[in-house]
Amino acid sequence: MLYPCKYLETQGFDVTYLPVDSYGLVDPAEVEAAIRDDTILISVMYANNEIGTIEPIHKIGEIAREYEIPFHTDAVQVIGKIPLEMEKKERNVDMLSLSSHKFYGPKGIGALYLREGTEIDNYMHGGGQERKKRAGTENVSGIVGLGKAIELATGNIEKHNEKMKRLRDRLLAGVLKIPDCRLNGHPEKRLPDNLNFSFEYIEGESLLLMLDEMGICSSTGSACSSGSPEPSHVLRAIGLPPEIAQGSLRLSLGDDNSEEDIDYVLEVLPETVEKLRAISPFYKPENACKK
Predict the structure, then answer these.
(1) How many Å apart are CA 57 and CA 217, to the nearest integer?
(2) How do residues 195-212 score in pLDDT, each as one tens digit?
(3) Is 211 helix (H, G, I), strand (E, B) or coil?
């Protein structure tokens, strides 16, 4: 969401960026305080893609409706994980964006929900496709794939979440036994399949590469920032200093993961962290925090 906002600034728009607390939560009171007479849009992620924190969008949506300001939420991370009821729970959301590949659909296609009566400018100019909002021939196979994927993803969210939370909590408990490790994001108000850790005295990219060699797929930030040498702006926003933010690791769980996978990660990860710390000039074992 940052890059579109940065682009809008080049077009003369004034964008207000709000801070978050140490868990990554936006304060609805700060949203209300930031509203101006000329505010035309409020946009907040439903859940953060890096640290998994679920934002109070229902409260923010109530504020937006009270001030008659269109409210958009990026729900890319929550499809298939949080039940959405656009006419009930999310009744104050005017626009909601989603991406197919996040719930096992085809890559390269997404969707934008528009509440009836919400006016937007044309996304692409040309023909009259998509009610004249997005010109060009529709990606029919992608649309069908997205539709089927979201049908499957939302068919039994409770059962899916039960499994994800069980695996997540077991993984969390095991990883936190590693000295000088912290969980990033809210401990409870978080996605059922996401964990983000910071390990002091190591560099996240090295950890990522070593885990990859052991058959463990992970990341150090969001896919949107792949290749960037800078610490995650999300981790910096929650107050982590650069040297700790650089040692972050994001582990995401999926339908195919099992208890055996958790066992394997908990076997490999502590050893890998220990190897990296052994070659770090900053790590002194006698100063390690006891868990």
Answers:
(1) 31
(2) 999 999 999 999 999 999
(3) helix
